[in-house]
Specification:
This protein has 225 residues and is α/β, with parallel strands linked by helices. The chain has two domains: 1-30 and 189-225; 31-169. The chain has five helices and eight strands. The protein has helices spanning 2-29, 37-40, 46-49, 151-158, 188-224; strands at residues 34-35, 53-60, 66-73, 76-87, 93-102, 120-128, 145-146, 166-169. It has a five-stranded mixed β-barrel. β3 and β4 (76-87) form a beta hairpin. α1 (2-29) packs antiparallel against α5 (188-224). The two termini are 33 Å apart.
């Protein structure tokens, strides 16, 4: 009983930690937007920048665009489109997850057209640790269509001075792309579910102890009398 009760309380404490983290992330999103220089700085504090809003200015490198396959948005399957952005006035490149586009179901190898403006652009987004990931079998490929994209491997593959964080572009649909990104998942509901299971098991053990150690002996004693 003590063990299961303690485990239940531990799961509740984990849920409280995750809720505090969500509150902190929401507070970060309300802070003023950062400039792209915050990502270009070599000593940038990655964890402190996560989920902050950022405004980037630079030029797209469309020849390095990557399409992440099997991504769902608005209950449809398609690609997440990622393109490196060379920051204006800095020797740094930021990988931007620009949005989602539907796939061609007649030929999955046909890349859907994405409008990529030339010249300097302004991009507003949310700082993230890495591109969106999905379950994959085997190693990631090196073509335009991939299942996942590892930032360090992509940096070595392209030779680009990629920042250690990426940006998920936000805003209304544009350039043929949707941007209904999922909200951060803290797993609070999971911890509450585990806590309920442990407390339920604790209650069951308590009932069994009462039955076998108290109620049943009392009934036997009464029947003998």
């Amino acid at each position: 009983m003590a063990a299961t009760f303690s485990l239940g309380r531990w799961q509740l404490s984990r849920a409280a930690e995750k809720q505090a983290l969500l509150a902190a992330l929401a507070e970060r999103q309300r802070l003023p937007a950062l400039a792209g220089a915050a990502l270009a700085a070599p000593a940038a504090d990655g964890p402190a920048l996560l989920y902050r809003t950022v405004i980037l200015r630079g030029t797209w490198l469309p020849e390095r665009t990557v399409y992440l396959d099997n991504r769902v948005m608005d209950r449809r399957t398609g690609f997440y489109v990622l393109t490196p952005l060379r920051l204006a006035g800095a020797d740094a490149v930021v990988l931007v997850q620009r949005g989602w586009i539907p796939r061609n179901f007649e030929d999955r190898q046909v890349l859907p057209p994405v409008a990529t403006p030339a010249g300097e652009v302004r991009v507003e987004g949310r700082i993230a640790e890495s591109p969106s990931r999905a379950y994959a079998l085997g190693a990631d490929g090196t073509g335009a269509i991939r299942q996942n994209l590892d930032l360090d491997a992509f940096r070595a593959e392209t030779g680009l001075p990629l920042a250690s964080l990426v940006v998920w572009q936000t805003g209304e649909p544009s350039e043929g792309l949707l941007r209904q990104w999922p909200a951060p998942d803290s797993g609070v509901e999971k911890h509450h579910g585990y806590a309920f299971q442990w407390f339920g098991l604790c209650a069951l053990i308590a009932l069994l102890v009462l039955w076998f150690q108290v109620a049943r002996p009392l009934r036997r004693s009464s029947s003998h009398d």
